[in-house]
Specification:
Elements lengths: L1 H5 L31 E2 L27 H13 L7 H5 L1 E7 L2 E21 L29 E6 L5 E3 L10 E6 L19 E3 L9 E19 L16 E8 L11 H18 L4 E12 L1 E8 L2 E8 L4 E3 L13
Antiparallel strand pairs: 1-3, 2-11, 3-8, 3-10, 4-8, 5-8, 6-7, 9-10, 11-12, 12-13
Bound molecules: 2-acetamido-2-deoxy-beta-D-glucopyranose (NAG).
């Protein structure tokens, strides 16, 4: 069988694992070199928390934008486009301003997933502990405590799975790769070759010249934070990217599994919450373990500004705490136009 040929059964006399060692570590059945399928977390999940009361409406208003603030934002917008004339922004007369504040719902799910594979490294005197005790199961291995909502990946050598190959199978324990001459000195070992120290041959890359390999089960622990947004879109609001700005935080809660915001005064937010919570449970509870979820509702300030320039009326929007501007019909977009 390929696997057995790949890892010849030559071990130190201390212990002699069976030839089919890959299937023989309890909890690691099916772990193969270079393989590493995801391991489903042990069931069952904890019960879902009871419904959260909807947030009490505190001060959810956002004070209207002042005219001079809207104008300054518009000037910054014009000057950030190198070809735009700033005349409409400086000379245009604001005729009316309407608030179009809009909700954004965000759900974050922080998960942990684990996978294993047989790995090897140059042998550097590590204890060969294969089978001296039962190996801890994949979800019992201690990993670094999570920093919530931050991605992190680590690789851990599973205790009691390490054994020493008597010799590196790539170079047969020579420490140099058989038949591969050092390119630099073409195998002569002369010409003061520094890359091969004059040996004429390259160091074996697999054992790094150590001649022996340690093989073990490697556990990969990945912690990932995934997030999704839903912005309540007013059809008359032609702004695609309300994701890139911040707003006023109205509600935030974080727990093991969040409960949808059913009681939220705005039904679109409740529906978004219900849908995303369901989607995240379906997508992330299968092959990973959900460690924490967080949901946030923000009110994003948006102001529609109507203004007049050279007898024509135009529109721009100021949005987000950052006061970004969107102006699709900016009337002077080329500086070479003769006004
Ligand atoms: C964290 O990992 C998730 C899933 O792989 C990815 O979608 C997200 O962009 C990552 N976040 C950061 C800040 O890198």
């Amino acid at each position: 069988m390929f696997l057995v040929a790949f890892f010849p059964a030559v071990y130190p006399p201390l212990m002699a694992p069976p030839a089919n060692m890959f299937d023989n570590v309890p909890g690691y059945e099916g772990t193969v070199p270079g393989g590493g399928g995801f391991l489903p977390p042990p069931m069952p999940m904890e019960p879902v928390a009871p419904p959260q009361p909807g947030p009490e409406p505190p001060d959810w208003s956002i004070s209207a934008l002042e005219e001079n603030v809207a104008r300054e934002a518009f000037k910054r917008f014009a000057s950030s486009h190198c070809c735009y004339s700033d005349a409409p922004a400086t000379e245009g007369v604001i005729t009316s301003m309407e608030p179009f504040n809009t909700y954004r719902y965000r759900l974050e799910t922080f998960t942990e997933s684990r996978s294993t594979e047989w790995a090897h490294k140059p042998y550097e005197g590590e204890p060969a502990d294969f089978y001296t005790q039962p190996a801890p199961r994949p979800w019992e291995v201690q990993a670094t405590p999570p920093e919530l909502f931050n991605n992190h990946t680590e690789k851990i050598r599973v205790p009691y799975t390490s054994s020493i190959k008597k010799s590196c199978w790539v170079c047969n324990g020579a420490g140099v790769k058989d038949g591969v001459n050092c390119n630099h000195c073409r195998g002569t070992g002369k010409d003061r070759c520094s890359r091969c120290d004059g040996r004429g041959r390259k160091e074996c890359q697999t054992c790094k010249g150590k001649r022996q390999l340690l093989t073990y089960i490697e556990l990969k622990v990945e912690k990932n934070n995934v997030e999704d947004h839903v912005v309540e879109q007013n059809p008359s609001l032609k702004i695609d990217d309300l994701r890139s700005v911040t707003g006023k935080e109205l509600f935030k809660n974080s727990q093991y599994l969040v409960y949808p915001l059913l009681g939220f005064p705005n039904p679109a937010v409740s529906q978004a919450s219900e849908r995303l919570v369901r989607e995240h449970q379906t997508n992330y509870a299968q092959n990973s373990r959900i460690l924490q979820q967080r949901q946030t509702v923000e009110l994003i300030p948006v102001t529609k500004v109507n203004y007049k320039w050279k007898d024509n009326t135009h529109v721009y929007y100021v949005y987000g705490n950052e006061q970004k501007v969107r102006a699709d019909d900016y009337p002077a977009t080329c500086c070479c136009v003769i006004l």
